[in-house]
Amino acid sequence: MSTTSTLRLIRPGGSARDVHQSYSGPLPGRLWDTLSLWLARSTQRAALGALAEDAHLLNDIGLTREQAMGEAHKSFWRGQACLRRTPSF
């Protein structure tokens, strides 16, 4: 069985919510988009929570364990905050 993780890059100052709310189609389409967004968030946050146990991988993506766990514990309906990369020298 194979698992695939997807990380979405959001430009500074932007958010997934901004992109999502720009859709102005019919109600069933917006409902489907909202449910799809929530499922994606839930899946990505679970993957990030599992990744938080590996300091080497977290360093590769520029996050601390606290940042990863903070995002992983957020509810699926809460939008993503722009995580700031802490430089490692």
Structure description:
There is one protein chain. This protein has a domain of 46 residues. It has four helices and no strands. It has 89 residues and is mainly α. The longest helix is centred in the middle third of the chain and has 25 residues. Helix 2 packs antiparallel against helix 4.
| Low-pLDDT sequence parts | 1-6, 18-22
Order of helices and strands: HHHH
Continuous helix count: 4
What spatial form do the alpha-carbon principal axes imply? elongated
Radius of gyration: 15 Å
Beta-strand portion reads under 5%
N-to-C CA distance: 37 Å
Average predicted local confidence, pLDDT: 75
Largest sheet: none
Q: Structural class of the secondary elements? A: mainly alpha
Q: How many runs of DSSP E, i.e. beta strands?
A: 0
What is the helical fraction, as a range of percent? 40-55%
